[in-house]
Amino acid sequence: MLAVFNSAVAEGPEELRTPGDLSPTPRKKAADLLQSFMTDFPQAISVNVEGVCHMAYSHEKEALLRPRSFAVKDEIFCLFEGTLENLASLRQQYGLSKSVNEVSLVIEAYKTLRDRKPYPASHVVGHFEGRFAFIILDKSTKSIFAATDSQGKVPFYWGITADGFLAFSDDADVLKGACGKSLASFPEGCFFLGAEGLRSYEHPKNKVTAIPAMEEEMWGTTFKVEREGVYAGII
C-alpha cells in the first residue's frame, strides 16, 4: 500500500529529512513514486484526493493475516492493513453493527477522537489489539492520522520524497527510490497525528527521539521511545 501527502496536509518530523546529497542515488518526486507503484502493481486501486493526497493499494502479495483494505466515510479516507483481534468488543465500545470491519472501525474511532476533544489519541489506538498499520486522511480538517501496532507485526515505513511529500508504505523498497535516506521504519507502538506529531501510545508521557543512523545504514533516522532514562526497544 502507498499513501502520499503534500505539505498542505502533513510535513512529517524534521528529523526524517536527510539532505539529498547524502542519498546514495537521486531521489524521485511524488508523481514518479506513484507512477512506479502503479507500474509494479497494475491491478492496484488508486484514489486522488483533490491533489493533496494519493492513496493506492493492491491485494497482490498480500499476507493471509495482513489483508489490505480501504474505506471512505464523511470525507475521511483510510488505508488499513492487518487484523484486530478485539474487533467484536471494539464494535460494542463504539456502538457499531456486527457488519463493521477493521477499516470502518478505525474511521469511527478517529471520528470519536476528532469530535470529542480533548479525547486522547493514545486511548483510541491503545485499545486496538492485533497486527495493524493504518493511514487516515481527514479531508475536512486537512490532517492525517497514522499508527502501527505495539509489536510491529505489520511492516510500516515513511519517508520524504525529492519534492517534499510525506509518503507511507508497507514496503520499504517502494519508498527507497523516491526517499533515499529520508526514509525510516515507522516506530512500533506509536502514532502520528497532525499538530501532536509523532508520539507513543504505549508510553504517552515519554518522548520519541530521533537517532541519526550510521552512514552505511539504509535509514537516515531511527525513532525510539525513551523509557526510564533509556530507549525502548523500538527500531
Secondary-structure topology with pairs:
Layout lengths: L1 E4 L24 H11 L4 E5 L3 E5 L10 E6 L2 E9 L2 H7 L8 H14 L5 H6 L3 E9 L4 E6 L8 E4 L5 E4 L2 H8 L3 E3 L4 E4 L3 E4 L7 E5 L8 E7 L2 E2 L4
Helix pairs in contact: 1-5
Q: What percentage of residues falls in helices of 4 or more residues?
A: 10-25%
Largest sheet: 6 strands, antiparallel
Q: Report the CATH architecture.
A: 4-Layer Sandwich
Side-by-side strand order of the widest sheet: 2-3-1-9-8-10
Low-pLDDT regions: none
Order of helices and strands: EHEEEEHHHEEEEHEEEEEE
Number of domains: 1
Radius of gyration over alpha carbons?
A: 17 Å
CATH topology: Glutamine Phosphoribosylpyrophosphate, subunit 1, domain 1
- Which percent range describes the beta-strand content? 25-35%
Number of helices: 5
User: How would you classify the helix and strand content by structural class?
Assistant: alpha+beta
Shape designation:
globular
CATH superfamily: Aminohydrolase, N-terminal nucleophile (Ntn) domain
Structure summary, number of beta strands = 15
| Cα-to-Cα separation, first versus last residue | 21 Å
What is the CATH top level name? Alpha Beta
Mean pLDDT: 90
